[in-house]
Amino acid sequence: MTSNGKVRTADSRIMILGMPGVGKSALVVRFLTNRFIWEYDPTLESTYKHVTTVDDEQVVMEILDTAGQEETIQREGGVRWADGYILVYAINDRSSFDSILSLKHYLDDVKKTNVQCVLVANKVDLLHERRVEASEGETLAQDMACAFYETSASDGGEDIPELFHELHREIRRRKMIESKGRRRSSAQQVRNVFNRVLNKIGSTS
Ligand SMILES: Nc1nc2c(ncn2[C@@H]2O[C@H](COP(=O)(O)OP(=O)(O)O)[C@@H](O)[C@H]2O)c(=O)[nH]1
Ligand SMILES: [Mg+2]
């Protein structure tokens, strides 16, 4: 529901992906409630509808918090459903970082485009356990053409709203470009039909 009581369809659909235990649910819960929950059911996969303000505009986001890693049909359905992706690893878990690039390739394959994403290095409060340098995260994000954030869902997470907002902006930008392209191509189709009709009239007269 929005402030005028109408149910709106989502302006952006965001899917959170990453290896089990990296803190996907913790990030989503922090974004939605500004709280940190230490233990969150690791098998729970949920979609949340969230009304928020981005750049003075009221927007509706739908967020799919995934669980599990297998590339199942169900997962593929989620990938198709989403407009943008938050890819999460934990700075104290090297394997979670190593899995990100193949995940991105999988998303590109399913969506048949270079998908929009934000790369998140979570658990920066565990600095003493760091296994992935910030510079490595930055380089990977550059290679994938997405924004990069190091954050901690447990320690305040001040920049967590910003990373969701940034992905929303990117999604909106691409949607605008795509709809302009569609409008242009349908105007072109009308012109083509018109020209064909004119040619026909010309050739029969
Ligand atoms: N220290 C620390 N622990 C975290 C952070 N985020 C999540 N966790 C913990 O990591 C574990 C897995 O978190 P969860 O959100 O369930 O991960 P998910 O499987 O990716 O959804 C839980 O025990 C959380 O309390 C963080 O920023 N810092
Ligand atoms: Mg979870």
TrEMBL record:
SUPFAM superfamilies: P-loop containing nucleoside triphosphate hydrolases
PROSITE patterns referenced in this protein's UniProt entry, alphabetically: RAB, RAS
Domain of life: Eukaryota
Top-level EC class as recorded in UniProt: hydrolase
Organism per entry: Batillaria attramentaria
Catalyzed reactions per annotation: GTP + H2O = GDP + phosphate + H(+)
InterPro entries: P-loop_NTPase, Ras-related_GTPase, Small_GTP-bd, Small_GTPase
Keywords: Hydrolase
Enzyme Commission code(s) on record: 3.6.5.2
NCBIfam families reported in the protein's UniProt record: small_GTP
Keyword Hydrolase: yes
Name of protein: small monomeric GTPase
Upper lineage: Eukaryota, Metazoa, Spiralia, Lophotrochozoa, Mollusca
Family per record: Belongs to the small GTPase superfamily. Ras family.
GO molecular function: G protein activity
Positions of transmembrane segments: none
